[in-house]
Sequence to fold (285 residues):
Amino acid sequence: MFTPTNKLIDLLPYFKNKLGALYPESELENLFYWVCDVKFGLQKFQVKQGDSRLTESELLAVRNIVNRLKKYEPIQYILGETEFYNCKIKVDANTLIPRPETEELVEWVLDHTFNDARILDIGTGSGCIPIALKKSFASLEVSAIDISTTAIATAKESAELNEVNIEFIEMDILDPNVEALKEYDIIVSNPPYVLESDKMNMHHNVLVFEPHLALFVADQNPLLFYKAIAKIGLDILSKSGLLFFEIHENYGTETIEMLRQLGYQNIELRQDMQGKDRMIRCTRV
Ligand code: GLN
Fold:
């Protein structure tokens, strides 16, 4: 067996030995303690104290995790969850892993929320955006749309886990049933925006494990979802309602122009923490 003692702390060298060629040392420690936290409910200092021992089946579970990490499967999928804006969010093959830049978008939306504001997230995926919003500001009335039945099922589990009430609506935003939607004060969306031609520059683990439905658009129509959502916004946003987008870093100018042509005003483009054009906010007049 891979540890003679069954002690959890003795699995750290096992981790490093099996995965050392694939991940940097500092990341390996993070991965190890992340596994300890989620799988065994133990914080780093508790693991380091050294007295926690694992049963045979727990040891096998760790070995299984190591084997999946060897194939570069993201740890979030292996553990079935991640952290987003202080919320525990479930993730699986049907949902993207929430990204830090989307936390910045949530932050920006929260700067503009007010009591009882009605918010709609379009293309919710894991549900990270509506859950983070509702958990931060309990009086909001939050709805979320996705085309994927399975993504909605996962998002509902996360909403329950975070004890927030969100209305989930299954709908294809490219073939929308606008009558089924109410009026909203804020629409937010992080739709698919990665170009098919960007695929060759993407990490293997994103391409192999994350849902392509949530990521990609054809090179010929990079603003497909943005146009559809902005048009719907004209029908369902309240007067002076706000539209927030996460965008592709190379499409800020085009997105602004498209929004201007549709009559949106006060259009503001923001960079993410890496200095890339990443978010847009505008007002329906
Ligand atoms: N930001 C994500 C990525 O780089 C893409 C999210 C999206 O397509 N909406 O993988």
